[in-house]
Design brief:
The protein is 41% helix and 25% strand. By secondary structure, the chain is an alpha/beta fold. The protein has one domain: UDP-N-acetylmuramoyl-L-alanine:D-glutamate ligase (3-Layer(aba) Sandwich).
């Protein structure tokens, strides 16, 4: 099966903070995703110039597609980048990872996700969308959709309701399976009505962390949140951090433990969990096995700086999956 991802094409700028003073100064709630303009993005980067820094291509859906490509799946990614070195970097990274780029070019500069990593690994995003925000419903190309079997969307696209609905409608007409990662609690809060509409109508596989699930359902207990999601769609996953994840597939519930790790940076943990789960799902594995592959990838990526896993670690991951974990 071939997988199509649609999302914000962003270059990750990962900055490791010594404390949370910078978050307070710029009014960035710890653990949130805040949209910023070009000026504020530059001010944040300048204020953190003494911090350890790492750069990589990113964006939630792109990270998930990267993970699936590393597991041997055929993948395509739709997004918009600028005609600048960042945009060139993003496209080259996709091609280097055997991902088919379907990128439109803009005169606006390429977007970037400034990931501010607190001591302990929790990340806060100051995101300058740049050219990424110019992704439009016109890029829902029927030809590209016809070439793929599964559609993965990131929650950060949800404010662009026309794009999201058109993509889901196109996927539905073609009989594609669909998944949606809710991505951020404040995005969920601001778009709650629309999210409930598309989840109940199109019934994607839903990925949510505890906070996103709480905002969506009003339930503090992730198990209760899972039941609400399961009433709307066939498959739902609530990720519970170091405790693992809760899965409900067609009414059948599973609890999957996280793997023991030495956490460096939680950037990309949810995205790579989705890679692992979707790999298992697409290959017809049982939900608990899908969750175990998701936990494996999430655990491995948080031992790295940024949302990418080193090639030698991927070799080990593929071997573990081949042997049944």
């Amino acid at each position: 099966m071939k997988i199509l991802g649609i999302g914000n094409a962003l270059v990750d700028v990962i900055l490791f903070l010594e404390n949370d003073d910078l978050l307070t100064f710029f009014s960035l709630p710890r653990g949130s995703m805040q949209l910023v303009d070009a000026e504020k993005a530059l001010r944040v980067e300048e204020a953190a110039r003494s911090c350890r820094k790492h750069m990589a291509s990113g964006g939630s859906a792109a990270n998930t597609i990267h993970g699936l490509a590393q597991l041997g799946m055929e993948t395509t990614f739709i997004g918009t980048v600028g005609r600048d070195p960042f945009g060139e970097f993003f496209g080259n990274d996709l091609r280097d990872c055997q991902i088919k780029p379907a990128l439109s070019l803009s005169s606006t500069s390429t977007g970037r996700a400034i990931s501010l990593v607190s001591p302990g690994g929790e990340r806060t995003f100051a995101t300058y969308l740049g050219a990424a925000v110019e992704l439009s419903a016109n890029q829902v190309d029927a030809k590209i959709f016809c070439e793929n079997d599964h559609l993965h969307l990131e929650g950060y696209l949800v404010p662009n309701q026309e794009l999201v609905e058109k993509a889901l409608e196109q996927a539905g007409r073609l009989g594609m399976t669909v998944s949606l990662d809710l991505a951020s609690y404040n995005v969920v809060e601001a778009n709650l009505g629309f999210l409930k509409h598309i989840i109940s109508k199109y019934k994607p596989i839903v990925f949510a962390n505890e906070e996103e699930a709480r905002v969506f359902t009003g339930m503090a207990d992730p198990g209760k949140s899972l039941e609400v999601f399961a009433s709307l769609c066939d498959t739902a996953i609530v990720k519970t951090g170091a405790k693992g994840s809760l899965i409900c597939h067609e009414g059948e519930k599973h609890t999957v433990d996280a793997i023991p790790v030495n956490c460096m940076d939680t950037t990309g943990a949810g995205d790579l969990y989705a890679s692992g789960y979707l790999y298992g799902y697409i290959n017809g594995l049982k939900p608990d096995i899908c969750g175990r592959i998701g936990s494996l990838l999430a655990g491995k990526v948080i031992e790295e700086a940024g949302a990418k896993i080193r090639n030698e670690v991927w070799e080990n991951i593929r071997e573990m999956i081949k042997k049944g974990l």
